[in-house]
Here is the input.
Amino acid sequence: MSDVTEDSEKAKRRRRQTQYFGWILVAMIVAGLGSFGVTNFGGGIKSVGTIGQQEMSTNAYARALRDELNKISQQFGTQISLSQAAPFGVAERALQGLISRSALDAEMGRVGLSVGDAVVADQIASIESFQSVSGSFDATTYRDTLARNNMTIAEFEGGLRNDSARQILTAAIVGGFQAPAPLTDNLYNWVAEKRGFTVLSLTESSLPAPLPAPTQADLTAYHAANIAAYTRGEAKRITYVALLPDTLAPSMPTDEASVRALYDGRIADYVIPEKRLAERLVYPDEAAATAAVAELAAGKSFDDLVAARKLTLEDVDLGDVSKTDLGTAAEAVFALRDPGAVSGVISTDLGPAIFRVNAVIEAQETPFEDVKDTLALELQADSARKAIAQRTEALEDLLAGGATIADLAKEDGMTMATTDFVAGATDNDAIAGYTAFSKAAATLAEGDFPEWIGLDDGGIIAMQLDETVPPAPLPLDDVKDRVTADWHAAELAKALAALAETQKSAIEGGTQIGTLGVVSVAVAAGRETQPDSAPSGTMTAVFSMQPGEVQVLAEGAQVAVVQLDSITPAAPDGEEAVATREAIAASLAQSMSRDALALFTQALVTSGGLQLDQAALNAVQASFN
Here is the structure.
């Protein structure tokens, strides 16, 4: 009976996995076509290539592209364009996925693999988007939903049928793989082995004497020897003209009445009444509350009373409250000023209650005179942004009419400057702090026509590329602080490494490592452990050592002496050992399945013959830009 039950459970899990995978495929079909639409690219381009007789449609490639773009956009937390995603290989992944699916589809056609109408109907009927308010399948809703997503019934059902059949073929390929027991055991023994070790971390304070200050000759030599680190990358020399709120704001008129109105509108920020951090414990009646007060007098704490009501402190916490918040209980609660003070029984709208005051927050008032200048500047900045918005159209007309950057600079309030911009550099001029400027400057090319670009503070900017400035070494005087810090770090690393070698020799000669400084001891650490204040490669070194062995580990100025104390082999049995072995075996089986599917698919592609239409691929990609 147990075998039957186990088989039944396995079958249920397979059905759930199949159903779950099917839902994913349905969602991909709807989301992909819905976001892209059914379009014939270039008027008559319908295919981006073939594998044997299997056609890869432009719409299928578009759906694959959209899916990959959505995935990477979710990672970045914002919608990414195809051109922005190009460095991440989005187009290549989309095409490879389409090729793999098409190869499987071609094989399904060859062997005659398909699913029946009943299977497709059941899947469609189970999709909530196609159901009425009563929960049953609604044909009108089905047709309308597909229409809104630019899909025909034949297209949707054909895609669903193919995806279901492809799932069956894939399951047949990847099913049944089991990890070899010897490999699982070897990996388990490797993963579960533990090491005990002692780490002596060295810092600048460990040195017998402080490092001397560098001489000018030291800095000159270090700068010359490491000139690549002090060479500014190729720069774009850009002349720009900008209309910025900060530039216009001082000239914007304002008056005290407007400033006072702004202050009054935010009065809650400037006049904060006295408050209490309080907790409230409500009782069902006066008698219960009075009995609780008696328990307090007998030595119980407020926390005890809370626990007796089967509540938590979070349940009774009121946060910071004013008299207005407390209503009729205000005077009694505000009479409590000592932290931790507990009231007697107080009548509230919720019934008799006991309050505890944990802190007193004194009233705060910021006078108008203290903030009026700041508020006035805020009003002027807002007026400046509005003035810029009103002038933008006229300024755009000037550019369209052939005005140059120099011509625009003559307009009232304009700022004109030239900057050498290096993409990704941290020492660009302040104007590069505007994200819109940096993005535009990074793609600016010679001959680009200037156009107005909106900035995040409400300003606008236009720019032109004057020339490309080749990489150039930065003079020592310009980077002296950096060179000094780098020289110090390099000298410290050398001094600590030398000290560590001396201490290593002493330990190997019989000196106890703990007598040489403050140490940290790990009794039984796994490979995933990373000791504090130790180089990142510590565990790799530890698992290559023998008991009693000593090594010096260095990562820049982070230097440590490590001694291996013990090796603890993997536990042969036990609950944790079984769970770890099962996880390793499952991971290996999954990896083998993926490899088998990849090899099978590649064989299908090779035998079927892959033909790609680059013009069609380019047309689909162009539609995303």
